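In response to the reviewer comment on reproducibility (Comment 2.3), we provide here a single inverse folding case reported in full, input and output, so that an independent group could reproduce the run without further information from us. The structure tokens appear first.
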């Protein structure tokens, strides 16, 4: 019964949040069980484009380090803010949400060429937190019972807390990740929420039609007239 309750609760989580969080947990479990090695997952442009190990473009977003406090801290933020975005400003817009992931992922990969960003899951988390915080400016956030502040300060608190976790592995995973994610999140927020509302501005980030066809429910035609037998009313004789 307990498993059925957990399964039902899990299925109530929005699809994108459910898929991404599950992929992160399964990837970390596979590394912990030594079925995979982090060296098979990290972003390496040479291996991607010369050896055609294209899976690294995805797997570098799925590994958050070995099991421990850092991993559970990151999963908490991924699950919470990914879900709040999907249930909030992206409600009913699954294709737009996936496109935000793709846009952010591509920019982070490009930035990965410029620095030693081997795992970009931290950056993606920071992007999600940043976009949510800018779209929820009046929300007050309680940060683990230590501080209370307005939502726009959350990404910077996350970055500062990450730096305090501090060893060489975490510096690679955490310290470099959040600034990249904040920068990418700001670019997305500006192009999606700020620039279209400026004089002469327009939306530049347009979700491809094939994503909408695959992921979003078809919109009802406002000009559609149902057949007489489909209209509500008393049964016809």
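Designed residues, in position order:
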């Amino acid at each position: 019964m307990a498993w059925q309750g957990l399964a039902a609760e899990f299925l109530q989580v929005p699809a994108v949040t459910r898929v991404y969080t599950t992929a992160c947990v399964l990837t970390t479990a596979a590394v912990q069980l030594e079925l995979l090695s982090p060296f098979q997952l990290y972003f390496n442009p040479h291996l991607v484009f010369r050896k055609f190990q294209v899976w690294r473009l995805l797997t570098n977003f799925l590994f958050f380090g070995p099991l421990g406090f850092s991993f559970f801290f990151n999963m908490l933020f991924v699950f919470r803010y990914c879900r709040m975005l999907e249930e909030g400003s992206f409600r009913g817009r699954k294709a737009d949400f996936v496109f935000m992931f793709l846009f952010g992922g591509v920019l982070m990969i490009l930035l990965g060429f410029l620095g030693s960003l081997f795992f970009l899951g931290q950056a993606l988390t920071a992007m999600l937190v940043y976009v949510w915080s800018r779209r929820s400016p009046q929300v007050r956030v309680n940060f683990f019972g230590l501080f209370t502040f307005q939502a726009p300060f959350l990404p910077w608190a996350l970055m500062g807390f990450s730096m305090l976790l501090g060893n060489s592995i975490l510096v690679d995973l955490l310290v470099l990740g959040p600034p990249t994610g904040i920068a990418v999140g700001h670019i997305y927020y500006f192009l999606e929420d700020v620039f279209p509302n400026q004089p002469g501005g327009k939306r530049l980030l347009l979700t491809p039609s094939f994503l909408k066809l695959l992921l979003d429910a078809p919109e009802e035609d406002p000009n559609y007239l149902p057949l007489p037998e489909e209209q509500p009313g008393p049964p016809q004789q």
